[in-house]
Amino acid sequence: MEKYKELMKQYMLTENEEALYKAEQFSKQLLQKDVSPDEIVQIHIESLKSLYPELPKEMKRSLDFLLETMIAYGIVHQEARDLREKQLELKSEIEVAANMQDTLLNTVIPDVEVLDIGVLSVAAKQMNGDYHHFIKDSSGNVGVGIADVIGKGIPAALCMSMIKYALDSFSDERFSPNSILELLNRVVERNVEAGMFITMFYGVYDIHSHEFTYSSAGHEPGFFYKAKSKQFEEIDARGIVLGVQNNVSYINYSKSLEVGDTVLLLTDGVTECRQGDRFIERQEVVDVVQKYIHLPAQHIVENVYRYFERLQDFDLRDDFTLIILRRER
Amino acid sequence: MNLTIDVSKNEDVHEVKLSGEIDVYTAPKLKDTLLPLTQERGSTVHVYLDKIHYMDSTGLGVFISALKSTKEYDSKILLINLQERVFRLFDITGLKEVFQIESSIRGGL
User: Fold this and answer.
1) Which of A37, A231, A240, A319 could form a disulfide with A130 if both were Cys (CB 3.0 to 4.6 A apart)?
2) Would you indicate the residue range of the signal peptide (chain A) (predicted)?
3) Closest approach of chain B CAs to the CA of A241, in angstroms?
4) Closest chain B C-alpha to A263 CA, distance in angstroms
């Protein structure tokens, strides 16, 4: 109050620019102290009255009128402050949830001599709606699942946790990919709201016969890379997404892998990349992978991600997951 | 990009003509228009998609909700003239097997 009066007096007497500048600085301090607009008007009125006791009564009245008009602004100011606090609170809660999700959904890449495995999953928002899962069964075979929940953020993440627990509950036994999807479909169909669904691909790599058996529930098709011919081919697997119908049968497919042959699994965050108004064609994904195919699996996925990150100006629109399995020997 | 929804009634059929993009921002608007129609007992809804050049999975979610409600309310939904990119979504997700999809008038495929 005294400071305001002082600055005002200074300006009234000198009309000095410096006093104006000081006033601007002072207003920042007031904001920090959460002084509301109507309080400032109040201070102004009192300072004015004490500097000029002889103020015309019309002037005084007009100032009281101004004060009343400012009250609503004061309330809004207070609300904005409360919202800011609330928002900070929510933000830190989401951070905690995101960390929990990381821990819960954490999966360990199995260490298998015959396979080189690379995986990268990046969330567009704080929480990831993509999920991937590795498992090594008692005979040493490797199961790999990749899934994408419709939507992003918290609802998608909660749904993903459900998949994870369902998978955990029956992954001890040796199920084939199609029966895993059938079981998951039942869980998802029963537990999600009407417009929600999940796409998923599940595959099992037999480390003795080098057969890759897989099944898909409407998941974005991945690719096989044949080392001998250096050709990519789309993984053809048909099946409806999880959560739409209650009694669905999925089909098992299988593919023999030679040394160097590679399985490439992804989510549509990879193929739905957009550069401005241009969509990334699937061929472009293949071309980029091809460029790095000579590298170790983990380096391939990292390089591919970096390529698409640059392409989109580092602004990821959708969760992005890429998995590479290569037969080493 | 926006979504324009034009609803009219032709005899007993609700005709829904869409144009623009169906994504996470426009999907709620589509849902609010489409669901009351499929929730009319015994109704038939024709959705024209020839002017939809982009749709993401949120859009699919809206159509799945609509499809589920047709079972509950004994109504019908028919999707007409999908552009290739949009049709691909129904194809990959296996949803083309459960939806009635037609490319009748202007060969939308």
Assistant:
1) A319
2) none
3) 5
4) 18
Cβ pair A164, A135 in contact under 8 A: no
Rounded CA-CA distance A210/A227 in Å is 15
pLDDT tens digit sequence for A78-119: 898 899 999 999 888 888 887 887 787 778 888 888 999 999
Residue A182 C-alpha, separation from nearest chain B C-alpha, in angstroms: 14
- Clarify whether residues A52 and A150 are in a common domain: no
pLDDT in tens, A152-170: 667 777 788 888 888 887 7
CA distances from B43 to B12, B46, B49, B76, B99 (A): 7, 10, 19, 6, 16
Neighboring chain B residues of A197 at a CB cutoff of 8 Å: 57, 60-61, 64, 93
Q: Cβ separation of A239 and B94 shorter than 8 Å?
A: yes
Rounded to an integer, what distance in angstroms lies between the CA atom of residue A286 and that of residue A128?
A: 24
Distance of CA A179 to the CA centre of its chain: 30
ipTM over 0.90: no
Copy the structure tokens of residue A251: 């089909």
Structural domain that includes position A6:
2-98
- Asked whether A180 and A167 are in contact (CB, 8 A), the reply is yes
More confident call, B105 vs A132: A132
Alpha carbon distance A299, A293 (integer Å): 9
Q: What is the pLDDT of residues A209-233, one digit of tens each?
A: 999 999 999 998 899 999 999 999 9
Give the three-class secondary structure for A156: helix
Confirm if A199 and B93 have CB atoms less than 8 A apart. yes
Would you identify the CATH topology of the domain B3-102?
Transcription Regulator spoIIAA (3.30.750)
Does A103 map to a domain?
no
Residue with tokens 């890429």: A322
